[in-house]
Amino acid sequence: MSDAGSPRPAPADQAFWGPDFSELERIDPEIAEITLAELDRLRGGLQLIASENLTSPAVLAALGSTLSNKYAEGYPGHRYYGGCAEVDRAESLAIERAKTLFGAEHTNMQPHSGANANLAVYAAFAQPGDPVLAMSLPHGGHLTHGSKVSFSGKWFTPIPYHVDKSTELIDYDEVRDLALTHRPKIIVAGATAYPRLIDFAKFRQIADEVGAILWVDAAHFIGLVAGGAIPSPVPYADVVSATTHKVLRGPRGGMLLCRAEHAKAVDKAVFPFSQGGPLMHSIAAKAVALKEAASDEYRAYASSVVDNAAAMTKALEAGGMRAVSGGTDTHLALLDLRELGVSGAEAERRCEAARITLNKNAIPFDPAPPMVASGIRVGSAAVTTQGFGTDDCAAVGALIARAVRAEDGTTAGDAELADVAREVSELVARKPAYPRQAPQSSAAAGDGAR
Ligand SMILES: *Cc1c(COP(=O)(O)O)cnc(C)c1O
C-alpha cells in the first residue's frame, strides 16, 4: 500500500505515464500518489471484475497525449473547427481499423462510453415512447436496456424478456412471443451478466418477422469477437454497440458498428444529437487498442480468456458454488452461492479482504434484493492479460472458494482470509500486472509470455 510518504516509482515504472510523471508529482503530489497507490492495488491483488482489463502502456501513452486538447466537433474531413488535420488522421485510423477488424460497413468511434453509444442507438432508431424489447436487468441486461432509473426506461417503453427458469438460457420463444405482441421498434441482444453465447441468427429471424431493428449490445464480449474466440454479431445486426475498455483492452469509451444504410442516422445520433466535441486522445487510444487487437498475440489472448474463465468456473463449482446456466462460453461466469448460505454482498466483502476484487451480482429469479444478491460475477480478462493460464485460474477459483466460506469477524475466519491474501500475493508476484521491468513493446502487455 502506498501512503503520503510513498517512494517515487522505480524509473522503469515511469514508462507507464511517460516522461511527465515527475511533473505531475511536482504540481500535484496528492494525485501523483493516488496513481501510484492504484498501481500498487492492481499489482497486489486479483482483478476479477468482468468488465475490467489492464490496458497496455501504449494505450496509456495515447490517452495521456496532447490530443486531449483538440476540439474536433464533426467527423474527419468535416469539422466545425480548424487545426484538425492531425486528429483527423487519428480518427480515420481508428475507423479503418475497426471496419477491418470487425468486417463492418460503417463505424463511429466517438461515443464517450458504452452508455453514450447506447443512447445514440435509441436516438438513431426510435422515437420517445417506442417499445424496445431487451433483456430484463435482473436477468443480466444493462441499465440502458430499459431500467426505470435510466433514460432508456423513462423515455422509451421497455419490454423485458428473460432467461428460462430451468436452463437459465435466453428464452427465445418468449422473445418471439413478446415481439409478435408488442411489435418493438428495436430488439436488443446483449447483456452485462450472461455467460453463454447468444444466438444472433435467431434474434435476426425474430427481428425480420416483426420489422424491428436488431441491435446487439456487445459491450462485454466485443473483445472476444475481435480475437475470433466467439462468433461475431456484425453479419446479423443492424447496429452493434460496444465499449472499448472491457475485454477489448482499450481506453474507457464506446463505439458503434453498423450497416452502411444506417451510417448517416448513427453518426447524427452521436454528434450533434447526444454529444459535443469528441475525446480525440481517447479515439487515438482506441486506434492503438484496435491495432493491438488485430495481432496474433491478441487472438491467442482472446482464446485464452475463454479457457481461463472455464477453468476458474470449474474450480468454483468444486468449491460448492453453482454456475448459473451450468458454465460459461465467454470471459465471465455467474455463481449462485445459496448452497453455501453466503450472500453475494458477504462474498464480495470477504474476497476484498483477501485482495480478490469481484462483484456481487443478482442471479436470475434472485430472491434477495440487488444490494445483497445471491451471486457473484467473475471475469478472466484482466488476469489473462497479466499472463495467467488455466492452472493459475483454477488456483484463483480455489482461493475464491476459501475466501467466500471464511466468516469474517471471527478469529478463524479472519485468519483464513489473511492466509488467502498471502497466497494471492504469491500468485500475483509470479505474474504481475504491469511488471516492473520496462515494457518491451505494446503487444507485450498481453502475450502471456512473461
Ligand atoms: C458495460 C456495459 C455498458 C455501458 O458501458 P459504460 O462504458 O459503462 O457506459 C452498456 N451495455 C452493456 C451490456 C454493458 O455491459
UniProtKB/TrEMBL annotation:
InterPro entries: PyrdxlP-dep_Trfase, PyrdxlP-dep_Trfase_major, PyrdxlP-dep_Trfase_small, Ser_HO-MeTrfase, Ser_HO-MeTrfase-like, SHMT-like_dom. One of its GO terms (biological process) is methylation. It holds the Pfam family SHMT. GO terms for cellular component: cytosol. Its cofactor is pyridoxal 5'-phosphate. Keywords: Amino-acid biosynthesis, Cytoplasm, Methyltransferase, One-carbon metabolism, Pyridoxal phosphate, Transferase. GO terms for molecular function: glycine hydroxymethyltransferase activity; methyltransferase activity; protein homodimerization activity; pyridoxal phosphate binding. Pathway: Amino-acid biosynthesis; glycine biosynthesis; glycine from L-serine: step 1/1; One-carbon metabolism; tetrahydrofolate interconversion. Residues 24-400 form the Serine hydroxymethyltransferase-like domain. Homodimer. Catalyzes the reversible interconversion of serine and glycine with tetrahydrofolate (THF) serving as the one-carbon carrier. This reaction serves as the major source of one-carbon groups required for the biosynthesis of purines, thymidylate, methionine, and other important biomolecules. Also exhibits THF-independent aldolase activity toward beta-hydroxyamino acids, producing glycine and aldehydes, via a retro-aldol mechanism. Thus, is able to catalyze the cleavage of L-allo-threonine. Belongs to the SHMT family. This is Serine hydroxymethyltransferase. It comes from Rhodococcus maanshanensis.
